[in-house]
Structures are given as structure tokens and as C-alpha cells.
Design a protein that fits this description.
Elements: H1 2-8, H2 13-45, H3 47-59, H4 64-86, H5 91-112, H6 127-140
Helix pairs in contact: 2-3, 2-4, 2-6, 3-4, 4-5, 5-6
């Protein structure tokens, strides 16, 4: 029966694209979820990363309690976004928040530490494909 149905109505180019995209949709969501979760956990759990984060926050003018609030607040947001993506909860909303947060943090870094634009590891330029991946994830979400 399936063979006869396929002969009567063969798959279109769009059907093939939909099948391909559906197969990578969970991979993209999981990759972004793990990225956000790791981005939040590393500065909290890895001492060297935490102190480097404090040094960067100081360059933004944040010290003491403000630096703690910024570090742990940003970490909590990242962990939450990661968890929500991994659990496939409100994926489009989470993607939008992720884009907003990425643009906000990028603007702050660019404003206070413009040398990061030319950094050899590309901490700012990597945000371009991150935002593109978030948009693609949001579009693929049903």
C-alpha cells in the first residue's frame, strides 16, 4: 500500500527539505541548550573562570555586590535558557530571549572592551552564528 501511494503521489522537493530539517531540529535545540547551560555553569563552578569574569565585570564598572549580582544573575539566566531548551519548553520565546541577551551583552562588551572584536578567539564574532542558529531554531519550531 505504501509503495502504491508513493507512486501515486511522490515526495516533493519541499517534503524532502522538511524531512531533512526535522531530523536536525532536535540536534540544534540540544546544542544550543547545552551551550547556554555550560555558559552559566562554567563561571560558577570553575574558579579561574569566575575570577576572570569578575575582572571583566570590573572593566564594566561593576564590583562587589553588583559584580556578584551580575555574575550570578547572568549565570542563572544562561542555565535557565539552557534547561528550557533541553526540555523543549517555550523554544521560540527562549530563542528570542537568547537573541536579546546576546545582543545586549555584545553591545556592553563592544562599548567597554572593543578589543574583543579583534580577539583571536572571536568572543564577539562568534555571536553572529549563534544568533543565526537561534533564529533557525525558532523558525523550525512548530
Amino acid at each position: 500500500h505504501v509503495k502504491q501511494a508513493m507512486l501515486e503521489e511522490p515526495a516533493t522537493h519541499g517534503d524532502l527539505w522538511q524531512t531533512r530539517l526535522q531530523s536536525v531540529q532536535p540536534l540544534l535545540r540540544w546544542a544550543l541548550g547545552l551551550f547556554w547551560a555550560a555558559s552559566g555553569l562554567i563561571p560558577i563552578l570553575v574558579e579561574q573562570s569566575r575570577w576572570e569574569s569578575y575582572a571583566l565585570l570590573e572593566r564594566l564598572g561593576l564590583t562587589g555586590r553588583l559584580a556578584n549580582a551580575a555574575l550570578y544573575g547572568a549565570a542563572a539566566l544562561d542555565i535557565l535558557l539552557g534547561f528550557l531548551l533541553l526540555m523543549a519548553i517555550q523554544v521560540r520565546l527562549v530563542g528570542g530571549i537568547g537573541i536579546f541577551a546576546t545582543l545586549l551583552f555584545s553591545a556592553l562588551i563592544l562599548g567597554f572592551m572593543p578589543e574583543f572584536l579583534w580577539h583571536p578567539f572571536g568572543p564577539l564574532t562568534k555571536n553572529i552564528p549563534l544568533i543565526a542558529a537561534l533564529i533557525i531554531m525558532m523558525v523550525l519550531e512548530e
